[in-house]
Amino acid sequence: MYTAIGYAAQTPTSPLAPMTFQRRSPRPDDVAIDILYCGVCHSDIHQARNEWGIAVYPLMPGHEIIGRVTAVGDKVTAHKVGDLVGVGCMVDSCRTCEACAKDLEQYCLEGPTMTYATPDRVDGSNTMGGYSSSIVVSEHFVVRIPAGMDLPSAAPILCAGITTYSPLKHHGVGPGHKIGILGMGGLGHMGIKLAKALGAEVTLFTRSQAKAEEARRQGADHVIVSTDAEQMRAAAGRFDFLLDTIPVQHDLNPYLETLKFDGVHILVGLIEPIDPALHAANLVMKRRVLAGSLIGGIAETQEVLDFCAEHDIRCDIEMLDIRNINQAYERMIAGDVKYRFVIDMATLQG
Ligand code: NDP
Ligand code: ZN
Questions:
Q1: Among candidates 102, 114, 304, which has minimal Cα distance to 190?
Q2: Where are the chain's structural domains?
Q3: How far apart are CA 107 and CA 97, in angstroms?
Q4: Please, what is the average pLDDT of the chain?
Protein backbone atom coordinates (compact mmCIF):
# COMPACT_ATOMS: atom_id res chain seq x y z
CA MET A 1 0.00 0.00 0.00
CA TYR A 2 1.10 3.53 -0.55
CA THR A 3 -0.30 6.90 0.27
CA ALA A 4 -2.09 8.96 -2.36
CA ILE A 5 -3.91 12.27 -2.30
CA GLY A 6 -6.98 13.35 -4.20
CA TYR A 7 -10.22 15.34 -4.13
CA ALA A 8 -13.37 13.59 -2.95
CA ALA A 9 -16.93 14.34 -1.89
CA GLN A 10 -17.83 13.00 1.55
CA THR A 11 -21.61 13.41 1.11
CA PRO A 12 -23.95 14.35 -1.78
CA THR A 13 -24.03 17.96 -0.60
CA SER A 14 -20.43 18.53 0.47
CA PRO A 15 -17.98 20.16 -1.94
CA LEU A 16 -15.01 18.14 -3.15
CA ALA A 17 -12.09 18.50 -0.75
CA PRO A 18 -8.56 17.08 -0.42
CA MET A 19 -8.31 13.59 1.04
CA THR A 20 -5.37 11.32 1.82
CA PHE A 21 -5.95 7.61 1.21
CA GLN A 22 -4.21 4.35 0.37
CA ARG A 23 -3.70 2.82 -3.07
CA ARG A 24 -2.97 -0.90 -3.16
CA SER A 25 0.45 -2.28 -4.02
CA PRO A 26 0.37 -3.64 -7.58
CA ARG A 27 -1.02 -7.17 -7.90
CA PRO A 28 0.72 -9.44 -10.46
CA ASP A 29 -1.43 -8.05 -13.33
CA ASP A 30 -1.51 -4.45 -12.13
CA VAL A 31 0.00 -1.26 -13.48
CA ALA A 32 0.70 1.64 -11.07
CA ILE A 33 0.31 5.05 -12.67
CA ASP A 34 1.25 8.59 -11.63
CA ILE A 35 -1.62 10.71 -12.93
CA LEU A 36 -0.67 13.74 -15.05
CA TYR A 37 -4.10 14.86 -16.31
CA CYS A 38 -7.73 14.00 -15.68
CA GLY A 39 -10.75 15.30 -17.59
CA VAL A 40 -13.91 16.43 -15.79
CA CYS A 41 -17.02 14.65 -17.10
CA HIS A 42 -20.63 15.59 -16.33
CA SER A 43 -20.97 12.06 -14.90
CA ASP A 44 -18.53 13.13 -12.17
CA ILE A 45 -21.06 15.77 -11.08
CA HIS A 46 -24.01 13.34 -11.28
CA GLN A 47 -22.08 10.89 -9.09
CA ALA A 48 -20.50 13.31 -6.60
CA ARG A 49 -24.02 14.64 -5.92
CA ASN A 50 -25.66 11.20 -6.03
CA GLU A 51 -28.00 12.27 -8.84
CA TRP A 52 -28.16 8.65 -10.07
CA GLY A 53 -28.76 7.22 -6.57
CA ILE A 54 -25.77 4.84 -6.78
CA ALA A 55 -22.98 6.91 -5.24
CA VAL A 56 -20.67 5.45 -2.58
CA TYR A 57 -18.79 7.87 -0.29
CA PRO A 58 -16.16 9.06 -0.01
CA LEU A 59 -16.57 9.55 -3.75
CA MET A 60 -13.45 10.49 -5.70
CA PRO A 61 -14.48 11.13 -9.32
CA GLY A 62 -12.37 11.10 -12.48
CA HIS A 63 -12.37 8.68 -15.40
CA GLU A 64 -10.47 10.48 -18.14
CA ILE A 65 -7.02 9.69 -16.84
CA ILE A 66 -3.63 10.07 -18.49
CA GLY A 67 -0.45 9.25 -16.62
CA ARG A 68 2.92 7.56 -16.59
CA VAL A 69 3.58 4.01 -15.44
CA THR A 70 5.68 3.87 -12.26
CA ALA A 71 5.55 0.15 -11.43
CA VAL A 72 4.14 -3.07 -12.88
CA GLY A 73 3.27 -6.47 -11.39
CA ASP A 74 5.35 -9.51 -12.46
CA LYS A 75 2.73 -10.82 -14.91
CA VAL A 76 2.29 -7.53 -16.79
CA THR A 77 3.33 -7.66 -20.44
CA ALA A 78 1.40 -4.84 -22.15
CA HIS A 79 2.93 -1.85 -20.35
CA LYS A 80 6.28 -0.98 -18.78
CA VAL A 81 7.64 1.61 -16.39
CA GLY A 82 7.81 5.02 -18.08
CA ASP A 83 5.02 4.38 -20.63
CA LEU A 84 2.32 7.02 -21.14
CA VAL A 85 -1.02 5.34 -20.58
CA GLY A 86 -4.71 6.05 -20.16
CA VAL A 87 -7.51 4.77 -17.93
CA GLY A 88 -11.16 5.40 -18.76
CA CYS A 89 -14.43 4.58 -17.05
CA MET A 90 -13.79 0.95 -16.10
CA VAL A 91 -11.03 -0.79 -14.15
CA ASP A 92 -12.28 -4.40 -14.18
CA SER A 93 -15.01 -6.79 -15.30
CA CYS A 94 -15.67 -10.53 -15.02
CA ARG A 95 -13.66 -11.11 -18.25
CA THR A 96 -15.45 -14.35 -19.11
CA CYS A 97 -19.11 -13.57 -19.85
CA GLU A 98 -20.56 -13.22 -23.33
CA ALA A 99 -20.10 -9.43 -23.33
CA CYS A 100 -16.52 -9.52 -22.01
CA ALA A 101 -15.65 -12.22 -24.57
CA LYS A 102 -16.77 -9.79 -27.28
CA ASP A 103 -14.59 -6.94 -25.92
CA LEU A 104 -17.72 -5.23 -24.61
CA GLU A 105 -16.63 -5.08 -20.97
CA GLN A 106 -18.98 -2.14 -20.40
CA TYR A 107 -21.89 -4.57 -20.76
CA CYS A 108 -20.30 -7.26 -18.52
CA LEU A 109 -23.15 -9.47 -17.38
CA GLU A 110 -21.90 -9.27 -13.79
CA GLY A 111 -21.50 -5.49 -14.11
CA PRO A 112 -18.16 -3.84 -14.79
CA THR A 113 -16.10 -2.35 -11.98
CA MET A 114 -16.18 1.35 -12.65
CA THR A 115 -13.15 3.57 -12.06
CA TYR A 116 -14.81 5.11 -9.03
CA ALA A 117 -17.55 4.31 -6.50
CA THR A 118 -17.67 0.55 -7.22
CA PRO A 119 -16.42 -2.32 -5.02
CA ASP A 120 -13.08 -3.74 -6.23
CA ARG A 121 -13.60 -7.35 -7.39
CA VAL A 122 -10.70 -8.70 -5.30
CA ASP A 123 -10.71 -6.83 -1.98
CA GLY A 124 -14.13 -5.15 -2.00
CA SER A 125 -12.71 -1.68 -1.39
CA ASN A 126 -14.51 1.32 -2.93
CA THR A 127 -12.76 2.34 -6.17
CA MET A 128 -11.34 5.87 -6.22
CA GLY A 129 -11.04 7.78 -9.47
CA GLY A 130 -8.58 10.00 -11.22
CA TYR A 131 -8.84 13.28 -9.31
CA SER A 132 -5.77 11.96 -7.53
CA SER A 133 -2.01 11.65 -7.61
CA SER A 134 -1.95 8.00 -8.67
CA ILE A 135 -4.00 4.93 -9.52
CA VAL A 136 -3.42 1.17 -9.70
CA VAL A 137 -5.28 -0.73 -12.44
CA SER A 138 -5.19 -4.19 -13.98
CA GLU A 139 -3.24 -4.03 -17.26
CA HIS A 140 -6.20 -5.12 -19.39
CA PHE A 141 -7.97 -1.87 -18.48
CA VAL A 142 -4.98 0.35 -19.26
CA VAL A 143 -4.62 1.74 -22.80
CA ARG A 144 -1.61 3.04 -24.67
CA ILE A 145 -1.34 6.73 -25.55
CA PRO A 146 -0.19 6.97 -29.18
CA ALA A 147 3.24 8.57 -29.62
CA GLY A 148 3.22 12.32 -30.15
CA MET A 149 -0.31 12.91 -28.88
CA ASP A 150 -0.92 16.13 -26.96
CA LEU A 151 -1.61 14.72 -23.51
CA PRO A 152 -4.05 17.14 -21.82
CA SER A 153 -6.33 17.34 -24.86
CA ALA A 154 -6.27 13.56 -25.24
CA ALA A 155 -7.54 12.87 -21.70
CA PRO A 156 -11.26 13.37 -22.51
CA ILE A 157 -11.03 10.80 -25.30
CA LEU A 158 -11.04 8.20 -22.48
CA CYS A 159 -14.72 8.97 -21.82
CA ALA A 160 -16.20 11.74 -24.01
CA GLY A 161 -14.38 10.34 -27.05
CA ILE A 162 -15.19 6.65 -26.63
CA THR A 163 -18.79 7.32 -25.55
CA THR A 164 -19.51 9.12 -28.82
CA TYR A 165 -17.29 6.96 -31.06
CA SER A 166 -18.72 3.62 -29.93
CA PRO A 167 -22.36 4.22 -30.99
CA LEU A 168 -21.24 5.88 -34.24
CA LYS A 169 -19.27 2.73 -35.10
CA HIS A 170 -21.92 0.33 -33.83
CA HIS A 171 -24.60 1.93 -36.02
CA GLY A 172 -22.26 2.23 -39.00
CA VAL A 173 -22.44 6.03 -39.26
CA GLY A 174 -20.45 7.20 -42.27
CA PRO A 175 -20.55 8.75 -45.72
CA GLY A 176 -24.06 9.43 -47.00
CA HIS A 177 -25.54 9.69 -43.51
CA LYS A 178 -27.02 12.79 -41.94
CA ILE A 179 -26.50 12.87 -38.18
CA GLY A 180 -27.66 15.35 -35.56
CA ILE A 181 -25.61 15.79 -32.38
CA LEU A 182 -27.75 17.00 -29.46
CA GLY A 183 -25.89 19.35 -27.08
CA MET A 184 -22.39 20.72 -27.52
CA GLY A 185 -20.59 20.04 -24.28
CA GLY A 186 -17.75 17.60 -23.64
CA LEU A 187 -19.40 14.64 -25.37
CA GLY A 188 -21.19 16.67 -28.02
CA HIS A 189 -18.16 18.51 -29.36
CA MET A 190 -16.30 15.20 -29.67
CA GLY A 191 -19.35 13.69 -31.34
CA ILE A 192 -19.20 16.42 -33.99
CA LYS A 193 -15.50 15.88 -34.68
CA LEU A 194 -15.75 12.08 -34.77
CA ALA A 195 -18.89 11.89 -36.90
CA LYS A 196 -17.32 14.33 -39.36
CA ALA A 197 -14.09 12.29 -39.49
CA LEU A 198 -16.18 9.18 -40.19
CA GLY A 199 -17.63 10.93 -43.24
CA ALA A 200 -21.15 11.87 -42.10
CA GLU A 201 -22.94 15.19 -42.68
CA VAL A 202 -23.18 16.68 -39.20
CA THR A 203 -25.75 19.04 -37.66
CA LEU A 204 -25.53 20.38 -34.12
CA PHE A 205 -28.75 20.82 -32.17
CA THR A 206 -28.02 23.40 -29.48
CA ARG A 207 -30.06 25.65 -27.22
CA SER A 208 -27.77 28.51 -27.96
CA GLN A 209 -27.46 30.45 -31.20
CA ALA A 210 -24.16 31.71 -29.80
CA LYS A 211 -22.63 28.27 -30.33
CA ALA A 212 -23.42 28.21 -34.05
CA GLU A 213 -20.14 29.62 -35.30
CA GLU A 214 -18.08 27.50 -32.95
CA ALA A 215 -19.94 24.38 -33.98
CA ARG A 216 -18.93 25.03 -37.56
CA ARG A 217 -15.33 25.37 -36.42
CA GLN A 218 -15.67 21.93 -34.78
CA GLY A 219 -16.74 20.56 -38.15
CA ALA A 220 -20.54 20.83 -38.06
CA ASP A 221 -22.09 21.43 -41.47
CA HIS A 222 -25.32 22.90 -40.05
CA VAL A 223 -26.73 24.15 -36.76
CA ILE A 224 -30.32 23.98 -35.49
CA VAL A 225 -31.34 26.04 -32.48
CA SER A 226 -33.49 23.54 -30.59
CA THR A 227 -35.43 26.21 -28.70
CA ASP A 228 -36.71 27.64 -32.01
CA ALA A 229 -39.84 25.60 -32.79
CA GLU A 230 -39.79 26.84 -36.39
CA GLN A 231 -36.25 25.53 -36.99
CA MET A 232 -37.23 22.20 -35.40
CA ARG A 233 -40.31 21.88 -37.60
CA ALA A 234 -38.31 22.72 -40.72
CA ALA A 235 -35.97 19.81 -39.92
CA ALA A 236 -38.77 17.18 -39.93
CA GLY A 237 -37.78 13.85 -41.46
CA ARG A 238 -34.21 14.92 -42.24
CA PHE A 239 -31.84 12.75 -40.20
CA ASP A 240 -30.62 9.14 -40.26
CA PHE A 241 -29.23 9.36 -36.72
CA LEU A 242 -29.38 11.53 -33.62
CA LEU A 243 -26.74 11.26 -30.90
CA ASP A 244 -28.27 12.71 -27.74
CA THR A 245 -25.79 13.94 -25.12
CA ILE A 246 -28.21 16.16 -23.16
CA PRO A 247 -27.63 15.46 -19.43
CA VAL A 248 -31.09 16.41 -18.12
CA GLN A 249 -34.72 15.51 -18.80
CA HIS A 250 -35.91 16.81 -22.16
CA ASP A 251 -38.76 16.18 -24.54
CA LEU A 252 -37.57 13.60 -27.10
CA ASN A 253 -40.67 13.93 -29.28
CA PRO A 254 -39.65 17.01 -31.31
CA TYR A 255 -36.25 15.43 -31.93
CA LEU A 256 -37.74 12.10 -33.05
CA GLU A 257 -39.77 13.98 -35.62
CA THR A 258 -36.54 15.16 -37.26
CA LEU A 259 -35.59 11.54 -38.05
CA LYS A 260 -36.33 9.87 -41.39
CA PHE A 261 -38.22 6.58 -41.37
CA ASP A 262 -35.90 3.92 -39.93
CA GLY A 263 -33.94 6.69 -38.22
CA VAL A 264 -32.18 5.97 -34.93
CA HIS A 265 -32.14 8.24 -31.85
CA ILE A 266 -29.21 7.17 -29.65
CA LEU A 267 -29.31 8.22 -26.00
CA VAL A 268 -26.04 8.60 -24.13
CA GLY A 269 -26.75 11.52 -21.78
CA LEU A 270 -29.78 10.20 -19.87
CA ILE A 271 -30.11 7.21 -17.58
CA GLU A 272 -33.32 8.36 -15.88
CA PRO A 273 -36.95 7.73 -16.81
CA ILE A 274 -37.93 9.67 -19.93
CA ASP A 275 -40.08 12.66 -19.05
CA PRO A 276 -42.17 13.98 -20.74
CA ALA A 277 -43.31 10.64 -22.09
CA LEU A 278 -42.48 9.38 -25.54
CA HIS A 279 -45.32 9.50 -28.01
CA ALA A 280 -45.09 5.95 -29.39
CA ALA A 281 -46.45 7.11 -32.74
CA ASN A 282 -43.14 8.91 -33.25
CA LEU A 283 -41.51 5.47 -33.35
CA VAL A 284 -44.25 3.24 -34.73
CA MET A 285 -45.41 5.32 -37.69
CA LYS A 286 -41.89 5.62 -39.12
CA ARG A 287 -40.23 2.41 -37.85
CA ARG A 288 -37.83 4.63 -35.91
CA VAL A 289 -35.58 3.20 -33.21
CA LEU A 290 -34.77 4.66 -29.81
CA ALA A 291 -31.40 3.24 -28.73
CA GLY A 292 -28.87 3.72 -25.95
CA SER A 293 -25.14 3.28 -25.59
CA LEU A 294 -22.72 3.05 -22.68
CA ILE A 295 -19.08 4.18 -23.04
CA GLY A 296 -17.16 1.54 -25.04
CA GLY A 297 -14.97 -1.54 -24.55
CA ILE A 298 -11.25 -1.42 -23.87
CA ALA A 299 -10.20 -2.52 -27.38
CA GLU A 300 -12.47 0.14 -28.86
CA THR A 301 -11.06 2.73 -26.45
CA GLN A 302 -7.61 1.97 -27.86
CA GLU A 303 -9.13 2.20 -31.34
CA VAL A 304 -10.59 5.68 -30.75
CA LEU A 305 -7.30 6.94 -29.30
CA ASP A 306 -5.48 5.66 -32.38
CA PHE A 307 -8.21 7.13 -34.63
CA CYS A 308 -7.88 10.56 -32.96
CA ALA A 309 -4.09 10.43 -33.25
CA GLU A 310 -4.34 9.53 -36.93
CA HIS A 311 -6.91 12.25 -37.71
CA ASP A 312 -5.37 14.82 -35.34
CA ILE A 313 -8.63 15.07 -33.39
CA ARG A 314 -8.18 16.90 -30.10
CA CYS A 315 -10.65 17.80 -27.42
CA ASP A 316 -11.05 21.52 -26.82
CA ILE A 317 -10.03 21.93 -23.23
CA GLU A 318 -9.58 24.44 -20.44
CA MET A 319 -6.83 23.51 -18.02
CA LEU A 320 -8.00 23.42 -14.43
CA ASP A 321 -6.22 23.87 -11.10
CA ILE A 322 -7.75 21.12 -8.95
CA ARG A 323 -8.30 23.65 -6.15
CA ASN A 324 -10.99 25.20 -8.38
CA ILE A 325 -12.87 21.95 -9.03
CA ASN A 326 -16.05 23.04 -7.22
CA GLN A 327 -16.31 26.27 -9.24
CA ALA A 328 -15.63 24.21 -12.36
CA TYR A 329 -18.68 22.05 -11.62
CA GLU A 330 -20.87 25.15 -11.38
CA ARG A 331 -19.44 26.49 -14.63
CA MET A 332 -20.14 23.16 -16.37
CA ILE A 333 -23.74 23.20 -15.19
CA ALA A 334 -24.04 26.74 -16.55
CA GLY A 335 -22.55 25.57 -19.87
CA ASP A 336 -19.57 27.87 -19.34
CA VAL A 337 -16.69 25.70 -20.57
CA LYS A 338 -15.23 25.13 -24.01
CA TYR A 339 -15.68 22.18 -23.91
CA ARG A 340 -13.93 20.11 -21.28
CA PHE A 341 -12.06 20.97 -18.11
CA VAL A 342 -8.89 18.95 -17.70
CA ILE A 343 -7.19 18.94 -14.31
CA ASP A 344 -3.45 19.51 -14.34
CA MET A 345 -2.54 17.10 -11.56
CA ALA A 346 0.63 19.07 -10.77
CA THR A 347 -1.73 21.52 -9.02
CA LEU A 348 -2.53 18.81 -6.45
CA GLN A 349 0.93 19.28 -4.98
CA GLY A 350 0.70 23.12 -5.04
P1 NDP B 1 -21.64 18.70 -20.56
O2 NDP B 1 -22.20 19.38 -19.38
O3 NDP B 1 -20.24 18.97 -20.95
O4 NDP B 1 -22.54 19.00 -21.87
C5 NDP B 1 -23.90 18.79 -21.95
C6 NDP B 1 -24.52 19.65 -23.05
O7 NDP B 1 -25.92 19.37 -23.10
C8 NDP B 1 -24.42 21.14 -22.78
O9 NDP B 1 -23.24 21.70 -23.28
C10 NDP B 1 -25.64 21.69 -23.48
O11 NDP B 1 -25.38 21.90 -24.87
C12 NDP B 1 -26.65 20.57 -23.37
N13 NDP B 1 -27.56 20.84 -22.24
C14 NDP B 1 -27.22 21.08 -20.96
N15 NDP B 1 -28.32 21.35 -20.23
C16 NDP B 1 -29.35 21.27 -21.06
C17 NDP B 1 -30.74 21.45 -20.90
N18 NDP B 1 -31.28 21.80 -19.71
N19 NDP B 1 -31.53 21.26 -21.99
C20 NDP B 1 -31.00 20.95 -23.18
N21 NDP B 1 -29.67 20.80 -23.38
C22 NDP B 1 -28.87 20.95 -22.34
O23 NDP B 1 -21.86 17.15 -20.29
P24 NDP B 1 -21.02 15.90 -20.87
O25 NDP B 1 -20.90 16.07 -22.32
O26 NDP B 1 -19.83 15.67 -20.03
O27 NDP B 1 -22.02 14.70 -20.53
C28 NDP B 1 -23.31 14.64 -21.13
C29 NDP B 1 -24.13 13.55 -20.50
O30 NDP B 1 -23.62 12.28 -20.93
C31 NDP B 1 -24.09 13.52 -18.97
O32 NDP B 1 -25.39 13.20 -18.49
C33 NDP B 1 -23.14 12.38 -18.66
O34 NDP B 1 -23.38 11.79 -17.41
C35 NDP B 1 -23.48 11.45 -19.79
N36 NDP B 1 -22.45 10.45 -20.08
C37 NDP B 1 -22.89 9.24 -20.55
C38 NDP B 1 -21.99 8.27 -20.87
C39 NDP B 1 -22.45 6.97 -21.41
O40 NDP B 1 -21.66 6.05 -21.45
N41 NDP B 1 -23.66 6.85 -21.89
C42 NDP B 1 -20.55 8.47 -20.66
C43 NDP B 1 -20.21 9.81 -20.27
C44 NDP B 1 -21.13 10.75 -19.97
P45 NDP B 1 -25.97 23.20 -25.65
O46 NDP B 1 -25.56 24.38 -24.83
O47 NDP B 1 -25.27 23.10 -26.97
O48 NDP B 1 -27.44 23.04 -25.75
ZN1 ZN C 1 -17.46 10.39 -18.37
A1: 304
A2: 2-159+316-348, 161-292
A3: 9
A4: 97
Domains 2-159+316-348 and 161-292 share a fold: no
Atom of ligand 1 nearest to the CA of 246: 7
The alpha carbon of 76 and the centre of ligand 1 are apart by a number of angstroms equal to 37
Cα(185) to centroid(ligand 1), Å: 6
User: pLDDT of 166-189, one tens digit each?
Assistant: 999 999 999 999 999 999 999 999
Which atom of ligand 1 has the smallest separation from the CA of 204?
47
Cα 62 to ligand 2 centroid, rounded to whole Å: 8
pLDDT band of residue 248 (cuts 50, 70, 90) is very high
pLDDT tops 80 at residue 350 = no
Residues 6+ apart with CB under 8 A from 164: 187, 188, 190, 191, 194, 195, 243, 245, 268
Alpha carbon distance 202, 191 (integer Å): 9
Q: What's the gap in Å between 52 CA and the centre of ligand 2?
A: 14
Tell me the one-letter amino acid at 34.
D
Q: Which CATH superfamily is domain 2-159+316-348 in?
A: Medium-chain alcohol dehydrogenases, catalytic domain (3.90.180.10)
CATH architecture of 161-292: 3-Layer(aba) Sandwich (3.40)
User: What is the structure's pLDDT at 168?
Assistant: 98
Residue 1 confidence (pLDDT)? 86
CA of 233 to the centre of ligand 2 (A): 32
> pLDDT class for 349, splitting at 50, 70, 90?
confident
Ligand 1 pocket by C-beta < 6 Å: which residues?
41-43, 46, 159-160, 163, 183-188, 206-208, 211, 245-248, 250, 268-269, 293-295, 332, 335
From 114, 245, 294, 333, give the residue whose CB has the most ligand 1 atoms within 8 Å, as the site to mutate. 245
For the residues 316-335, what does the mean pLDDT come to? 97
Sign of CA dihedral 41, 93, 195, 229: negative
